[in-house]
Amino acid sequence: MAITRLPIEIVNRIAAGEVIERPAAAVKELVENALDAGARNIRVRVEGGGLGLIVVEDDGSGMRADELALAVERHATSKLTVAEDGTADLLHIVTMGFRGEALPSIGAVSRLELLSRADNAEAAAIRVSGGMVEAPRPAAWTGIAAHGTKVTVADLFYATPARLKFMKTARAETMAINDTLKRLALARPETGFALESDGRRLWRVSGEAAGETARQNRLAALLGRELGDNCATIDVAREGMRIEGLAGLPTLARAGAGLQFLFVNGRPVRDRMLTGVLRAAYEDLLARDRHPVAALFVSLAYEQVDVNVHPAKTEVRFRDPAAMRGLIIGAIRHALAGAGFRAATTISAAAQAAFRPGNAPSRPNWSDGGHVSGSWMPGPNMPGPNAPGPYVSGPEGREHVGARLALAEAGLPGLVGAFSHRTHVAGHEAALTEAEAARARSDGLPFPLGLAKAQLHETYILAQTADGFVLVDQHAAHERLTMERMKAAQLAGGLARQLLLTPEIVEMPEDACALLADAAAALEAWGLVIEPFGHGAILLREVPALLGQADWRGLLDDLAAELAEHDQAFELKSRIDDYFAGRACRHSVRAGRRLDLAEMNALLRDMEATPFSGQCNHGRPTYVELKRADIERLFGRR
Q1: Cα(432)–Cα(442) distance, integer angstroms
Q2: Structural domain contains residue 344
Q3: Residue 596 contacts residue 391 (beta carbons within 8 Å)
Q4: Residue 163: Cβ within 10 Å count
Q5: Domain-terminating residue out of 205, 237, 262
Q6: CATH no. for residue 111?
Q7: What is the distance between the alpha carbons of residues 138 and 141, in angstroms, rounded to a whole number?
Q8: N or C: which end of the chain has fewer CB within 10 A?
């Protein structure tokens, strides 16, 4: 078969398909050009999901007439400095764009018009239709400021009608444009943005002076105050790298990854490695089908990251990915640990909605759901006339020893004996030490999770706080406490390894063996000792003692797949976490177990002192809180 040179029009359309796969990609490229031109205000208007019309206006530096013709040529750019020998430093990219592909790619598949005016210059315009370029011409200026650029894209993909068959509905394409523009707006809080669709304004934000406050205000304006109220703040720096932003509480998780916003040096990215690292940071805090909410801003030297690995510039490659992974995971875990026992306020909002007449409770914000219902049951200090159970009351206020022994057998060391004075006399002070009782009398209710008042259905603890009440799932709460104690004890002594009496030889594809061999040192830290065994085989010598008799062939297959996709083996840590979670579940206080006030208060105090206790090992919330104002609204008092 003879080799022929493709016509330039075909070359341009093929290249356009790599950069402009849908209207949102065109908006992204045009807005990035506006940001690189120093724009402080950008307005985007679309019709028909961007397929009919896209208009991007800015107040940037603008272009002169002689520059317009160059702007629509392939690989013509003002964003790279080319040396006299024809070389350019592609590892020091400080602008959003640099390839010089956006405008010619859009012009190859649409009817494109550029109207621009530089400062102290006359306005000029140029048109490109299906790759055919007209000469620049003088034009009347109709931009949003005295200088800037106005780009109009009409009939996107008219020159490649086959591409139109793969577009989604106008609503879906508009939503994609909305998401793309929001990510760019989050990256640049100093710039004002506005989006209109089919003549209707969807949103608008004003630019602010750069700073932490500006970023927080931009996050709140575009994502809602709910995000800020239910996130832990991150600001960590190490070895020239810095991570800032917000990490959502585990109980704020969503069914999809749409609320994960990742930025590298001010550039929005959708990077598989960073997404995998985010997943690893929440590994034992979420159910498998839930996704964390986060907005992370990564800053590092431009030479330490390569943004030239994808035509759409949405993926990046780090020079030291292991250091970046460790920094992100450590920063998120530290921030979440600092949040302590907090649970998302959205849980309380769902509880309020369930209480309102005529409102069916919606599915909660966790994996396997569940909601509290049923009538009130008297607690052990307020027995009903026919209340069952071996509770002892009387003038001397004797303790209920049976429940304490049961809790001790269930794995509650330190919880049962945490208080020196336990009685069943009326009032919450009976469950406190004398010093704590005095503090409660003088300060009101000093504990964030309040003081236990009753047990409902032998499953839920009702506690009164200073300005409301909380309802605690005793099994879910104790499950998290037990798991954290087990993990701390295990890590304090190191992960125990079990030497296999006969090393196991596992045959695998050579590429999988190579991945595992490269990760051997990291796997050994988790108790898995392997080594290459000829071609296409791995020798398994030691295994984590926690896992017992596992399917080692299946585990190695999973590890190789994880390494190939995420460049890090999450599967082994996940298996170990599953083991801890299973043991914690089996050895925790069960639903249906009667607790006395002392035991309930001890559980509450331990929750307040334990990180991540706002959710159980399966990602469910451990408690629901209603403020007094919320209760008053339910009863029409507000």
Answers
A1: 14
A2: no
A3: yes
A4: 18
A5: 205
A6: 3.30.565.10
A7: 9
A8: N
Residue type, 178: N
Element (H, E) at 503: strand 497-507
pLDDT tens per residue across span 116-162? 999 888 999 999 998 899 999 999 999 899 999 999 999 999 988 88
* Same structural domain, 51 and 181: yes
DSSP codes joined into one string, 415-442: TTTS-S----SSSGGGGS-HHHHHHHHH
Look up residue 70 and give its two tokens: 């160059």
Query: Which pLDDT tens digit goes with each residue over 471-525?
Result: 999 998 998 888 888 778 777 777 788 888 888 899 999 888 998 998 888 888 7
Q: How far is CA 293 from CA 205, 282, 362, 625, in A?
A: 22, 10, 20, 21
Q: Is 629 left (phi over 0), alpha (psi -120 to 50) or beta?
A: alpha
446 within domain boundaries: yes
Q: Which of 59, 75, 68, 61 is nearest to 19 (CA)?
A: 75
Paired sense of beta strands 192-197 and 41-47, if any: parallel
Tokens at 375, concatenated:
């009538």
Task: Examine the domain organization and report whether 384 and 306 are in the same domain.
Answer: no
Are 270 and 149 part of one and the same domain?
no
> CA–CA separation, 163 vs 161, rounded Å?
5
Do 312 and 419 have their domain in common? no
Tokens of 455: 């047990």
Measured CA to CA in angstroms, residue 458 lies from 64, 299, 374, 416, 468 at distances of 77, 51, 12, 18, 21
Most distant pair of Cα atoms in the chain: their distance: 105
Cα–Cα distance, 633 to 638 (Å, whole number): 5
Q: Is there a single domain that holds both residue 447 and residue 592?
A: yes
Kindly state the tokens that stand for 87: 């070389």
Query: Do 584 and 557 fall within a single domain?
Result: yes
> pTM to 2 decimals?
0.70
pLDDT in tens, 576-630: 777 677 777 777 777 778 888 999 999 999 999 888 888 887 778 899 888 888 8
* 537 in any annotated domain: yes
What is the residue whose two structure tokens read 């004003």? 206
* CB proximity list for 64: less than 8 A, separation 6 or greater: 116, 118, 121, 124
Task: Say yes or no: 570 and 633 in one domain.
Answer: yes
Alpha carbon distance 612, 451 (integer Å): 20
> Position of tokens 């409660």?
440
Name the domain boundary from 205, 238, 270.
205
How many whole angstroms separate alpha carbon 398 and alpha carbon 59?
A: 78
Residue 440 within any structural domain of the chain: yes
Q: Are 233 and 335 in contact (CB under 8 A)?
A: yes
Which of 477, 489, 510 has its CA nearest to residue 588? 477
Which domain covers residue 434, as residue numbers?
Answer: 368-638
What's the CA gap between 479 and 485, in Å, rounded?
A: 10
Same domain? 188 vs 235: no
Q: How far does Cα 616 stand from its chain's mean position? A: 18
